[in-house]
Write a structure and sequence with these properties.
Blueprint: E1 3-4, E2 8-12, H1 18-25, H2 28-31, H3 42-52, E3 58-64, E4 69-79, E5 84-92
Antiparallel strand pairs: 1-2, 2-3, 3-4, 4-5
Helix pairs in contact: 1-3
């Protein structure tokens, strides 16, 4: 399933996304915002991704309308009974999309 609007799309994180996510998270400009505060390896990113499969959350790749991967977003702490959740962890790895309202789309 893909979620979309006029400017962005959300799709599931696939195995072939893990390398670029690890590289992007290791960028000094980005890694300061993560718990690790340091570059991570593909192996660490893969382990993180696998651990998320057993949690009460969803993680997506944000793509531009043309399909270019520009970041990730998550919905977590999902409470199905009360129909609430937290959304966040918006990471725009492509700097040209920062400050353009992608998080509001």
């Amino acid at each position: 399933m893909m979620l979309r609007d006029k400017t962005i799309r959300l799709r599931a994180i696939e195995e072939n996304d893990l390398e670029w996510i690890a590289i992007a998270r290791s960028d000094p400009e980005m890694c300061q915002y993560f718990c690790e505060y340091a570059p991570i390896s593909l192996r660490q990113q893969t382990k993180w991704d696998e651990a998320q499969l057993n949690k009460n959350e969803f993680n997506w790749v944000i793509t531009s309308a043309t399909g270019e991967a520009i970041g990730t977003i998550s919905i977590y702490d999902i409470d199905s009974r009360n129909r609430i959740a937290e959304w966040g962890r918006v990471c725009l790895f492509n700097p040209s999309y920062r400050g353009q309202g992608v998080g509001r789309a």
